[in-house]
Amino acid sequence: MSDQEIIQFNNVTKVFPGVKALDKVSFKINKGEVHALLGENGAGKSTLLNILHGVYQGYEGKVLIKNDVIKFGNPHEAIQFGISKVHQEVSLIPELTVGQNITLNYEPKKKLLIDYDKMHEEANKILDKLHCNFRSKDLVKNLSIGEMQMISIAKALFHDAKVISLDEPTASLTSSETETLFRIIRELKANGITIIYVSHRLEEIFKIADKATVLRDGKFIRTFDVEDTTKDELIKSMVGRDVSSFAKRNKPRRFSEEVVLEINNLTLEPHFKDISFKLRKGEILGFAGLVGAKRTDVVRTIFGADHKDEGEIIVHGNNVDIKSPLDGLENGIGLIPENRKTQGFVKNLNNANNIGLACLENFKDLIFLDHEEKIENSKVFIDKINLKPKDPLYLTRELSGGNQQKVVLAKWLSTNVDIFIFDEPTKGVDVGAKQEIYKLLEDLVAQGKSIIMVSSELPEVIGMSDRIVVMKEGRLTKILDYKEFSEEKIMHYAMEGTDVEDKEV
Amino acid sequence: MLKIKKFKIFREFGILVALFAMVIIFTALNPIYISFNNIIDIIQQSAINGLIAIGITFAILTAGIDLSVGSTLAIVIVVVGKFLTSGLNPIIAIFIGILIGFLLGVFNGLLITKLKIQPFVATLGTMSVYRGIAYVITGGWPVLNMPRDFRNLVSGRVFNIIPIPIFILIGFAIITHILLNHTRFGTYVYSIGGNEEATRLSGVNVEKNKVLAYGLVGVGAALAALVLLARLGTGEPTAGQGYELDAIAAAAIGGTSLAGGKGSVLGTFLGAILLSALKVGLIVTGVDTFWQFIATGSIIIIAVYLEHVQSQLYKK
Ligand SMILES: Nc1ncnc2c1ncn2[C@@H]1O[C@H](COP(=O)(O)OP(=O)(O)OP(=O)(O)O)[C@@H](O)[C@H]1O
Ligand SMILES: [Mg+2]
Questions:
Q1: Residue B3 in domain
Q2: Which of A138, A302, A443, B66 is most deeply packed, by most CB within 10 A?
Q3: What is the mean pLDDT of residues A256-277?
Q4: Which ligand sits closest to the CA of A431?
């Protein structure tokens, strides 16, 4: 092995009951490079990282670090060895300070007691290095997701990490937080730290990565030099066929003038105030805005997950008081939430139960639940969303992240609601699946359903929406028609909120 | 997936294996252990704890707990006892008892869902309140001299051989098993325990289903109360103290996770039988009472540890 190689995977195979998550994967990663790991949902990216980081011990093949075969008994051993991971679901203790989280388990001691002065001093030194504008003594629970991610990186540096891997780190970051993250990754790289980077956002790969290794169905496909490749080539090797990476409408627009949902002066203090808009039959109404614009709070309130303070929700001409998700469902409204782990699926249920959960009453014979029918129903939707593996009895929590998202989609597709609210529908799903979801959205409006889609990916809202509601800090600042869409316009209303010409209207 | 199903059965199979091992050891020490009468005795002894434990399993599955089961049992005992001694028809008295148990459970459920009090704290409170009510009803005295017909009806023997409490236990187990596995309510119980927020966001009426689950806990405690009342012939307001702990132990041995979302009626049923098989065995082999405590506690810890080891093995 040459000097510059730091990690080598040698015929790594990992089998879960019923699936081969990794199949004889061999490739190497050089010291000080940013190495992207690409592949469809369920390709085996997270599994490979879990092996490197000592989460799984049972696997075949070898992992070498600087010529030595390593076998960590648990993630702690890996961290002490200098191999750290920044989790997508940030795993910090919210009630503790930043410094306590960074030094957790390895606190500097003065005799038997923790030396807090030294702890904060050391932690602050690292935070400075990362240009963080919070301090060691701040409580973690008061920080944003992006800041929490910085703590995970700080933690890695505290342990003198030589390798840091990031599994879909930007999925819940704002664009400015993403920029900060990239700047830090470049600095880490300049200091000789090796970065492994997993993301479904290919634009990011071209901004940040030197090499990109593609996995497909658990097999190694190829390692690319990012400089010498194109997005299309990467996609083709991930999916095995040509797939567009653009969000765009392929069918004619469908919306009619019939209003299915009318929102008047909807208010929930302290989150948002005076939101008014109309959703038309067959329309895809996008919701754009920066993180913190409270789009999620608005749609949760329409669905009944939160209860409004004031304002009207008028469904098909009836003014209804929606107090709970059950009320939402009964009024034909469904919400596919943003966070699949905490809000989307139930961890101890299998796919058939998770998919059927919102409409179990459909599978009744007398008082008993008809399991057969429930499973048959789930199969239909498993096919529709192209779940992997296509097994209704598989536990949803054992699916890859993107496939879990698809199960949550399937749950609402199998109900008979006619107003769908999607909150970040393509978060964490791969390029191919994104196209499938876009097609699904179009199919829904073609059937006369109506859609509200909250998305932080501008190309996605612009490509898919018929109109876009722009929000800023809890206020609706503009509704744009598809003829006037542009990134600049949306960003203008999302950041400034003002609209000089329209003021007097 | 086949593998996962096998694994689930394996869990209950594990308790069966432990049970057989126990029977073999105790029989070797004292052959009387395996006699028909002794086996009947074991199952009968497990009836009271089994009924409560099956009920409490529903609370635990929703990621809750019910500490008030012993006090619920006491109220049912003294109220039904009073009705019976004043000459009420036993059948009607039985229904009243079950209804009271259900309502006391529902009250727990309402405290938990409407007032948003944590289950542990809410039922810690009602544990004391219900106990107090039982004392108030009788002025602290036991209710004596239950009528013969009631005692025969609930704790007599069929064909002079098999005690009726065994049928009550098995009947309740079958009904609750069906409820848990073949109705919407059952699926909701599991899913509330697994992820309450996601369940709520799926348009499920979480509150209603939780209240029903606690109602069912009360029914289990009420059935246990009837069996106890019939067996003893007197209704003490002090009855049932500490029963919640045996019930939780049976559920835990049976593979119910106290974190919620995982467990089964069959597991709890076997857990209760295992506990009483152990207790009877220790008596039959003449083990000192003090050591009985140590043995019982150790079994609980070992059983739950094995469960953990097994699920780790499965992960790899
Ligand atoms: N704990 C587990 N038990 C059983 N199967 C699992 C488990 N974890 C992962 N798998 C399976 O292994 C395969 C690879 O999953 P992995 O999470 O590595 O995919 P991924 O490439 O990270 O996908 P995504 O982009 O969706 O996060 C999938 O088919 C998944 O269902
Ligand atoms: Mg993953």
A1: no
A2: B66
A3: 93
A4: 1
